[in-house]
Amino acid sequence: MIRLDNVTKTYSTEVTALKGASFDIAKGEFVFLVGPSGSGKSTLLRLMNRQERPEKGAVWVAGRNINEMPDSKVPHLRRNIGNIFQDYKLLLNKTVFENVAFALEVIGRPRHVIRQQVPAVLDLVGLGGKQDRFPDQLSGGEQQRVSIARAFVNRPLILLADEPTGNLDPATGEGIMRLLDRINKTGTTVVMATHDTRIVNMMRKRVIQLDRGVIVRDQARGVYE
Amino acid sequence: MISRIRYMFREMWASLSRQLTLTFAAVITATVSLFLFGMTLLIQRAFDNQLSEWTGGVEMIVYVKHGASADEVEFIRAQLDAQDTLIDTVEYCDEACTYADAQKVFAADETFLDALTPDIIPSSFKLKPVSSSSGDALKSLKDLVTQLPNVIDVKTPDEAVAVLGELKSFFGPRTLVMALVLLFASALLIWNTIRTAMFARRREIEVMKLVGATNWFIRLPFMLEGLLQGVVGGVFGSLALLYMNQDWTGGMEAIDSNAGIKGFVVTDGYPWWVCLSMVVLGAFVGAVGSGTAASKFLDV
């Protein structure tokens, strides 16, 4: 599903975010990217949805080298990739329903499809009765669930999550992880950047560890270390 | 498709209402600049109308002595017809016709008009020289015609027409330059309004890009917003121009018909064409201003 071939990304002559990173992620895998701040986790995620381009190497997503993809095709690529963020990136002037519907609306889904899919995905993330609330009327965990619903409503092939539990207490974070695990079991590939030791150790999924832009460990059913 | 259109108009309206002050400023600037542009076109047209009224396509008038016999008039006509290399058309105007024309054409020449009274008014021939006639050729024609028997004077309305021509060439380019400068300012203001709107909605734009909205889909509501500002400016400017033109035309109708400036109005369908061009130009300026801003600041 995702393949990196010897990818190098630099932000300036002095800052190298990634150095010769290579790995394969199969369809339906759940992968943790771990490492300290500045190790290149977020850069990896940004390379996977073409927010960034590498200086060297190739990034393949769903069989296509996305570095060579013309700009006009990038939106179509992103419709197959859901994104979840530590700060949720919800629109505060829109209700829960509208936030999720927004993701379908801007890619031109018809109204009847939106009316059908949004309540379904809100039920899936456990926010069935809260669709008319605004983000500031929800807890942090609930806001992250809205963010997950928005990322998943279009049934993407891949979910990229950048520190989704970073702002949440341990119990709420566990709830979010159970939700991501459920989504992963539907066949969606999940790539999650985190430095939450407890969650990585609890989930026992594949772990790719980075240190100053270099992959230092790639372990199936790994722990944080 | 319908849901996309609905979305675009909804977002455009939301953005407009979110920054009313800037929108208002952009619309006013567009209104003033387009009004000035339309006024330039109307002034040019009014000058043309006035020139046409004064010259009527006639560039030389030959006055024949009051009381000249029909044979004497025919002799002069024959002499004029013989100059077919210099004269395109010859039209005879009897004494009543000449008196009426003189009031209009020489309205600015009071001394000449004072000398004309219905009991001494001459009849006249209106000459239209061929278009290729040079200034020297016209001068020698004038000298030739002046020497014909019973011809008392040969007049050309050149001086008054020249003054009007100068006025036209003075006002025309200057008002046009002012209008263009203001149009540029108006495009800049619309550009800035859209830039501010995009900055205010940067989080939405970021989310839209991440969920796979195309750049055109993101840009279009902003472009529509700028286009609407330009069109509304064009409509307001047109209304102001039509009102002003109507007011001016009414005022000119009240002026003495012998004042010689009654042609300085635009009464045919021309103002409507000017208004249409103002609205189209407003739309163009709005679309260009907002389109460039939407393209430039999409990476927020």
Mean pLDDT of chain A: 90
Order of helices and strands of chain A: EEEHEEHEHHHEHEHEE
Give the terminus-to-terminus CA distance of chain A: 27 Å
Form type of chain A: globular
The biggest sheet of chain A, with number of strands, parallel, antiparallel or mixed sense and barrel status, is: 6 strands, mixed
Please give the share of residues in helix of chain B.
over 70%
Overall strand count of chain A = 10
- Structural class based on helices, strands and sheet pairing of chain B: alpha+beta
**Beta-strand segment tally of chain B:** 4
Rg of chain A, rounded, reads 17 Å
Name the largest protein-protein interface in this structure: A-B, 24 and 19 residues
How is the largest sheet of chain B built, in terms of strand order?
2-3-1-4
How would you sum up the global shape of chain B?
rod-shaped
The percentage helix of chain A is: 25-40%
Percent of residues in β-strands of chain A: 25-35%
Which regions of chain B are unreliable across 5 or more consecutive residues at pLDDT < 50? none
Secondary structure category of chain A: alpha/beta
Q: Write down the overall mean pLDDT of chain B.
A: 81
The multimeric state of the shown protein is heterodimer
What is the fold's blueprint, element by element?
The complex is a heterodimer of chains A (225) and B (300).
Chain A: E1 2-10, E2 16-25, E3 30-34, H1 41-48, E4 56-61, E5 64-65, H2 74-78, E6 81-85, H3 96-105, H4 111-124, H5 140-152, E7 158-162, H6 170-185, E8 189-194, H7 197-203, E9 206-211, E10 214-219
Parallel strand pairs in A: 3-8, 3-9, 6-7, 7-8
Antiparallel strand pairs in A: 1-2, 1-4, 4-5, 9-10
Helix pairs in contact in A: 3-4, 3-5, 4-5, 5-6
Chain B: H1 2-18, H2 20-55, E1 60-64, H3 70-81, E2 87-93, H4 95-105, H5 110-115, E3 123-129, H6 135-146, E4 151-155, H7 158-200, H8 202-210, H9 215-253, H10 270-296
Antiparallel strand pairs in B: 1-3, 1-4, 2-3
Helix pairs in contact in B: 1-9, 2-7, 2-9, 2-10, 7-9, 7-10, 9-10
